[in-house]
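Q: For a teaching session next week I want to show students how multiple molecules come together into a single three-dimensional assembly. I've collected the sequence lines for a complex. Could you give me the predicted structure tokens for the whole thing so I can convert them for display?
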Amino acid sequence: MHTIPCIDSAQARRVLGLGAFTVVAVGLLLILLTIPTPVGAASPAQGSATEGQTIFEAKCAGCHTIGGGKLVGPDLQGVTGLRDADWLTKWITDPAALVASGDQTAVDLVGEFGTTMPTLGLSPDEVASLIAYLDTTGGPAPSGSPTASTAPAEPLPPGDAQRGRELYTGAMRFTNGGPPCLSCHTIAGIGALGGGAMGPDHTDVYSRLGDAVITFPQTGTMLPIFGPDPLTPQEQADLLAFFRTAPVAERSFEAIWVLIGLAVLGALVLIGIASLVWRNRATEPVRVRMLRGTLPSQNHTKRTEG
Amino acid sequence: MDIRSHVSMVFHLDKCIGCHTCTVACKNIWTDRKGTEYMYWNNVETKPGTGYPTRWEDQEQYRGGWVLDEKGGKLKLRLQGKWGTLANIFYNPYLPSIDDYFEPWTYDYQNLFTAPEGDDQPTARAVSQITGRYMDTIEAGPNWDDDLGGSPVYADNDPNLDGATEEERRQIAEIDRTVFFYLPRICNHCLNPGCVAACPAGAIYKRAEDGIVLISQDKCRAWRMCISGCPYKKTYFNWSTGKSEKCILCYPRLESGQPPACFHSCVGRIRYIGLVLYDADMIQEAAMAPSDQLVDAQRAAIQDPFDPMVIAAARRNGIPDSKIQAAQNSPVYKFVKRWGLALPLHPDFRTLPMLFYVPPLGPVTSKMENGAYETVDAGAEGLAPMLAALDKSRVSLRYMASLFSAGNEDIVREVYYKLMAVRIYMRGKTVQDVTQAEVDEALALAGLSGSEAEAIFRLTSLPTYEERFVVPPMERETAIQAQFPDIDPLTRKASTGFGFREDPARRW
Ligand code: SF4
Ligand code: SF4
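A: Of course. Below is the structure for the complete assembly, covering every listed component.
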């Protein structure tokens, strides 16, 4: 029996039919299990300190202070005295590339803060302005303080972890219409399926960043999303309460086995439905069946006796 | 009354010698491209036999054509309705496989020149035109059971024998009594085509001005529903281009005044082509007629081109006088309507095929006697033996009725009475061993006049090229303007005929 792609022999078609469902099921499984992480890119000149200040407030202040102590990243007071301008330019332009190049300072920073600085997508002029601004802030670099010690500038109202969870998963909408965290992030304790894979996993975010986590939305990726639709102080408080209480432990891997089980079961159900819906399909060429004598019309009892 | 014109065909089966010249002519012009190796837009089958693809008439397997929904009084595709199409869109379960056609092959001729010296003659082994690998066993071909060759399995499994008695089956297999005839087939360019109805992409259309059914190579999306939908299995899937293809009735030849290549090359001169006028308002009624009236209903839809009312209605629809005149000269009109000799193949599929066959008389009346092949001698004992032969014939009337009249034996019998009357009439004239009384009796039985018998004889046996092929002036420009008054017909001059102006993106 030979088959060609156009008019496949029926047997090949049946195999293909089963194959298609297996492929769909396995594909689904893979999508559920794969958690890719995106990477960005940017380019490196001249600038004014006032422009630099604007940039700092818009893009850096979420994670850095000048003279306010460590936040997500280090206190930047006196940073221009600590590192030369060339290194700073490279670092601000594309932190990931610098880390990848094996630069010792960069690698150490990542080691200390547990995360690389996001790529901000600044133009060479903007980078220069930013460095010019940092240069004006002067003063000696302050000694480090423990991460948890720093709190957001304005005191937040008391938060409700349950409401925070609902805001996180999208069960409750943000007042200003921002998308729920779940669409890009995941976190332990929100069910076996988890959330999105675009942004980092939030499971250990509170232990890493402390209360500062709630100012994190001011990074380059988050800003375009939440800049126009900011969180209200109450929402920030609720989320913070959720981050603090819910995800202390890592996500359990049992959930993944449950998922695999469900996927296999789902595939079986689909195959079952398919074989029921298409139970009349031709499974073998008519000619082959005719030569073997198994066509329905070859049932001689049906014929009129002569 | 909505009168339209249709290029229609008649095949006179008594004249077909089974030479396959038509098949070769078509193959060389249209299907010698990659992906079409297995296609035979024209093929010639031996009957009884299973044909190409195997048992194509078995709609229990292939689900082609239409069925009448007894309850709703509606005509439905046997294949599926809208929802069925949706459910099966990626997976049509009723396709014939390449095994049902045959795996096309060529030979490794090069080996004859390049084989190293050895003790044996080099051979040219068969090579599959699909996989490119050697084929050690060839199991099927486009005319595998030609002349009842191969094995008795094929004749015995002819779907038209499904209701046959054991006696009838034994007769066909018996040596010296065995009998067969040829059935050349092309697309019937049906009035109610199953292929068009089954296509989810709307890629198949019937040209309004001449009825030719075509598949748009741009719109075809390879769903392959037409292959199931056509009960004659006359659309084929090109695996190289990913498009379906079918007989185009050589419209480029027609448009330049020539008959289609298979007609032109036919050695037996069995083929006739001509225009008929039909009433489009009657299509639905004809397709839904009760089985035993299908042939009559289809004949009724074909209109008399001499009737002033029909002519007026044709003019109203923009049919030019040149075409009306062509319809009046049409040999098809004569065979199908005036004489009632030519019948549609399998009207029970309800697609209203516009290719008509004059059933063969030879296998019905001839026999082996004293070691010689004889036709029944009418002269010896009057008409009785000849007429009796009809019911004792080795290919039973039931078989012919299954092929040509949806099981209505009376219709086939009428045709045979006419065919025999013409023979008796001519025998009375030339051999003169039949009495005038017998001739008159035969003509009366057939309902023919002497001059009609003469005309039938003439168009059957001695037609000129111009009488067989009355190719109407196609007047595409008039037709385009009648349909699209705003379009300058000349803009269509360079548009795609058959094939691609741009290669399809996806190609194997
Ligand atoms: S015979 Fe031709 S027109 Fe009729 S259904 Fe088949 S492909 Fe269509
Ligand atoms: S060329 Fe004519 S005679 Fe020969 S097989 Fe074809 S239809 Fe019959």
